[in-house]
Design brief:
InterPro entries: Nitrogenase_MoFe_mat_NifZ. This is Nitrogen fixation protein NifZ. The strands form two sheets. Strands 6-5-4-1-7 form a five-stranded antiparallel sheet, with no helix packed on it. A two-stranded antiparallel sheet has the order 2-3. It has one domain: SH3 type barrels, CATH 2.30.30.750. By secondary structure, the chain is mostly beta strands. The protein starts with about 25 loop residues before the first strand and ends in a 9-residue tail after the last strand. The chain is globular.
Length: about 100
């Protein structure tokens, strides 16, 4: 029998996603490849703390959490991240994409 470790008992997917497509976000911590990112070595940095990206996909994990696909501007990497790993960036009207 497999024992799946969950971050908490809170089921985030009971409500709507916190972020929406196109939202500008910042990584709250450095994200490294855990072996699920093709073409990169395990442990290789995929997104640095403070790096800016945009939400390009919204999925779920374990029917508990939303996973946000974030495309980071500086590297072009698309990384799946949880809400607790991201923070919203206010968009300056002159900073339109």
């Amino acid at each position: 029998m497999t024992n799946i470790s969950r971050d908490s008992d809170h089921v985030e997917v009971d409500g709507p996603p916190y972020f929406d497509y196109g939202d500008k976000v910042r990584a709250k911590r450095t994200i490294r490849n855990d072996g699920t990112f093709p073409g990169k070595d395990i442990g290789e940095v995929l997104a640095k703390k403070g790096e800016i990206g945009y939400i390009v996909n919204i999925g779920t994990f374990l029917q508990q959490f939303y996973i946000y696909g974030v495309e980071f501007e500086s590297t072009g990497n698309r990384v799946g991240m949880k809400r607790k790993e991201l923070e919203m960036v206010e968009i300056d009207r002159e900073d339109d994409r």
